[in-house]
Amino acid sequence: IIEGLRREEIADMFARSIDTAFDANEFLALTKGKEGYLFPDTYLIPKDATTQLVARVLETTFVRKVTPEIRAGWEAQGLNELEALTLASLVQREARDIDSMKMVAGILVKRLRAGWPLQVDATLQYVKGFDANENTWWPTPLVVDKTRKSPYNTYIHTGLPPGPIANPGLDAMEAVASPTENDFWYYLTGRTGEMRYAKTIKEHNANIAKYL
């Protein structure tokens, strides 16, 4: 189970890997309200495992893997568990490696403290849900999506969304626990996958023109 998947994607992976004892709809019912707590990892699970067993294994692995040190880091940032996991899920979807995750976490924490809207495109993808044309739960965010009415839309609401938008891995959790302090307020992922940072909206717009 890779980092950054929604519950629906995890359910689909298990449905394709486990025999008839697993039911995707039952899994979604059992894990309702537990987005972010289904730990991404490599699992050895019997082919005839029940849906209840799968859900329980994912949740207990989360409890075992999230160390007291990570939790202490979250607390030091002024975040409770749900807030930290929510922010980690955004970081997971927005950055690819631990260094960029820590940079993005640092920027988003600054925006939170300054009362800025986070303006995270991944939240727009979460609001849109599954896109049949693109065949993905993470469709391309469009300009019009920035006005969608949803508590998860971080373009029209300040602060964190109500909960995680995906299930983050340890790197993203650690990035939130120990973000990199920096002078930047903006970031983007360029066409080649490299992160670009900016201190001002003018610099950010220049990066958009050059790298997107």
What's the overall geometry? globular
Number of strands: 2
Main sheet, how many strands, which sense, barrel? 2 strands, antiparallel
Order of strands, main sheet, comes to 1-2
Helix- and strand-based class? mainly alpha
Query: Which regions have little confidence, pLDDT < 50, spanning 5+ residues?
Result: none
β-sheet strand percentage: under 5%
**Helical content, roughly?**
40-55%
- The SSE order reads HHHHHHHHEEH
First-residue to last-residue Cα separation: 30 Å
Radius of gyration: 18 Å
Q: How confident is the prediction overall: mean pLDDT?
A: 96
Oligomer: single chain
Q: Helix count?
A: 9
Written account of the structure:
It is a single chain. Strand 1 and strand 2 form a beta hairpin. By secondary structure, the protein is mainly alpha-helical. The mean pLDDT is 96. It starts with 6 loop residues before the first helix and ends with a helix. A two-stranded antiparallel sheet has the order 1-2.
